[in-house]
Amino acid sequence: MQNITNQTEDYPLVSRSLEVPSSISESWKKILASAVRDPKELLHLLELPPSLLPEAQRACELFPLVVPQPYLSRIEIGNPKDPLLLQVLPLGLEEHSPDGYTADPLGEDEALISPGVLQKYHGRALLVTTGICAIHCRYCFRRHFPYADSPRGIEAWKESLDRLRADSTITEVLLSGGDPLSLSDPQLSSLLKEIASIDHVERLRIHTRLPTVIPQRVTEELLNSLTSSPLKTVVVVHVNHHREIDDSCREALFKLSKVTSALLNQTVLLKGINDSSIELKRLSERLLECSVLPYYLHQLDPVIGAAHFQVPVENGRAIIEDLEANLPGYLVPKYVQELPGKKSKTRL
Ligand code: SF4
After folding, report:
1. 39, 56, 80, 312: which is deepest, by most CB within 10 A?
2. pTM higher than 0.90, yes or no?
3. pLDDT 10s digits, 56-74
């Protein structure tokens, strides 16, 4: 913990507080719009040393800062090692990338079959509908993704949807990051209807971090859209640490579990954040309390700027062995790595 007495004097006064607006009085869009984007403000609000500012500002030029208030409110004040803070704090370490780290570690450029459509695996295709995320995770493998090249809006998605319509082998459509739940409820509802109108598509999968970082995103409209879709719908949330799940998040996840065919979680193995069996056991148990099952534990993808999060595979295997010895099988995630060009994820 830092001695906070004099630190805030180095920052201008800001009006923002760490209090989370209630779900009734403030919409998720307002919360998203008011997310912290200035590293000076982040350090001020969390009473962290001003000496962190120059490197944070440089790192933000590589990948901007975005931290919404509900997530911010779960970070311990004055603790520069807080596991939630470390996921979002821009550091000078991002400027150093060893050999083997690239801007496109999963070869997604090669997997692009049409504007905004990626196909990596048989029977499944991924639609990139937005570049917006409610939080910027510093380890994100898409931190350099050219989102500006992807179509936006229901009219612009027509070509992407036609591409899906033209391939009868595609039975599952994935919506992924940017965060598809950053689309408005009417946009999302129209998109789900368009996807459901494709005869050969049976399943919809939504990958999202929004229900965790802004639980208010789980609106009645969203729940209705999911309930009324004829598709089997799977939602995969993204939680790395049990402290990300507070009561409002648990409530949101529980509501989602009621309207989906499956509610799963994926976690990225991150140095100094969750690289111990104790932390991951607590995460699995917490997820179950919210009716979410652990799905994947991902080895970090070697993206430029994230090397400091890398955990050796042998450590990951030891963690999984420990989890297997201490948890029922359904609470142990599959430890995997995505390798470009492979027909499926690789088990480690
Ligand atoms: S929410 Fe997902 S896509 Fe967005 S920055 Fe985080 S990891 Fe990347």
Report:
1. 39
2. yes
3. 999 999 999 999 999 999 9
Structure tokens at 324: 């297997």
The residue-averaged pLDDT of 173-182 equals 92
pLDDT at 20 over 60: no
Q: What atom of ligand 1 comes closest to residue 136's alpha carbon?
A: 5
Closest atom of ligand 1 relative to the 177 alpha carbon = 3
Q: Is the CB of 217 under 6 A from ligand 1?
A: no
Q: Is 138 in the pocket of ligand 1 (CB under 6 A)?
A: no
Where are the domains positioned within the chain?
A: 108-347
What does the CA dihedral 166, 170, 173, 177 come to, rounded to 10 degrees? -90
List CB contacts of 166: < 8 A, sequence separation 6 or more. Answer: none
172 touches 207 (CB < 8 A): no
Please give the distance of CA 112 from its chain centroid, rounded to a whole number: 21
SS3 190: helix
d(CA 106, CA 230): 32
Cα–Cα distances in Å, from 252 out to 120, 133, 212, 247, 281? 31, 18, 8, 9, 22
| Contact in structure between 174 and 125 (CB atoms under 8 Å) | yes
According to CATH, the superfamily of the domain at 108-347 is Aldolase class I (3.20.20.70)
Q: How far is the first Cα of the chain from the last one, in angstroms, to the nearest whole number?
A: 36
Please give the torsion angle defined by the CA atoms of residues 320, 324, 327 and 331, in that order, rounded to the nearest 10 degrees: 60
Q: Whose CA is nearest to atom 8 of ligand 1?
A: 140
Ligand 1 pocket, mutate which of 65, 179, 265 (most atoms under 8 A from CB): 179
Taking the centre of ligand 1 as the mean of its atom positions, its distance from the CA of residue 210, in whole angstroms, is 10
State the average pLDDT over residues 267-283.
Answer: 98
Q: How far is the CA of 133 from the centre of ligand 1 (A)?
A: 6
Q: 3-class DSSP state for residue 300?
A: coil
